[in-house]
Amino acid sequence: MSDVVVVGGGIIGLAIALELQDRGATVTVLERGRCGQQSSWAAAGMLAPEAEELTGDLRELGLRSRALYPQWIADLQHRTGLSCGYWCCGILCPSAQPRADTAGGVSWLNRESLDRQQPGLGPIVTGARWLPEEGQVDNRRLMAALHLAVRLAGVRVLEGVAGYQWQFSPSSTIRAIATSIGELEADHYVLATGAWTRSLLPQIPVTPRKGQMLSVFDAQRSLQRVVFGDGTYLVPRQDGTIVIGATVEDVGFLPDTTATGIHGLLAGAIALYPAIATMPIRETWWGFRPFAPNEALFLGPGPYANLTMATGHYRNGILLAPVTAQIIADQLTGRNPKSHPQAGP
Ligand code: GLY
Asked: Are 217 and 283 in a shared domain?
């Protein structure tokens, strides 16, 4: 493997590009907009395989990736001097009853203990699972650091360049990708286009799931834990921003936030943490998660011999970026070519 084109400049594409370049490949990233401006930007940045209740292979990957995070972030900060807002702040998952998995290292706090862990939760929170190894990264700051790290490593980053069609050689391998600035040739191609996967691979069943979100500002920095409720989560950044998410909507690429979406999120947020009612709203936004049936994850060989897929990360793209980069780089460099074609739950 020498020349690789990575299509997609979100967190998955950039993480793979950096890992491949570090292992000796010459990598070009092709991004039709600006790197990291789609779902990587819209996400909340939770590192939460347990709170998300991932199961099976996906859970294993999530736990592995969560364990990779401290070193991955330290490396990015070392390369760039930029902080990524990584914070192992723990996650509280409100639940009325202790859960069966408590014996597996997850503790459950009754209301009295909860008040010591995080004062100010709403009366609907009568108890919660406490997940001390979970946390968050500030995904927007992470993307800025990753973008810089990739360029410092020597990756060629082409932004504002759309890749719209594969060009094949007589042996049915991909010879080039046709782009808005002409054909780009490489030995190997990696598709990491998230919710837009079908524009280059219509046969892969990855479709968008819109998420609406907003943020408020907590001048007191009173919320210090992620609160992962039923349908609403609260992610407090260290600068006082509280990110509130998120709707899950099967509406294609329909843009915009809606009154119903934001109203539902605010109602859920205020019920979890009543002080939010008087906090100023900072921002509202939306993004598109890459969803596949059964939450399948496409990590491995694509439909053409020199194409690898890294898509379908759905709610877990930020979490799964480091492990995805390792797996794809292992496959392409032959270090550990085991493939994970569809790691569903
Ligand atoms: N990872 C949380 C979400 O997708 O809303």
From this structure: yes
Q: How far apart are CA 338 and CA 340, in angstroms?
A: 7
Contacts (Cβ under 8 Å, ≥6 apart) of 244: 213, 214, 215, 216, 232, 233, 234, 235, 265, 266, 269, 276
pLDDT digits (tens, 9 = 90+) for 10-67: 999 999 999 999 999 999 999 999 999 999 999 999 999 999 999 999 999 999 999 9
Residue 279 DSSP one-character state: S
Name the closest-CA residue to atom 2, ligand 1. Answer: 315
Measured from CB, residues less than 6 Å from any atom of ligand 1 are 44, 46, 211, 245-246, 289, 315
Q: How far is the CA of 194 from the centre of ligand 1 (A)?
A: 14
pTM: 0.95
Q: What is the domain range of residue 220?
A: 91-132+207-291
Q: Give yes or no for a contact between 85 and 137, defined as CB atoms under 8 angstroms apart.
A: yes
CATH number of the structural domain spanning residue 20: 3.50.50.60
* Closest CA relative to residue 213, chosen from 276, 253, 274, 258: 258
Closest by CA position to 16, among listed 302, 338, 328: 328
Task: Count up the domains in the chain and report the number.
Answer: 2
Q: Residue 345: inside a domain, yes or no?
A: no
Q: Specify whether 57 is located in the same domain as 182.
A: yes
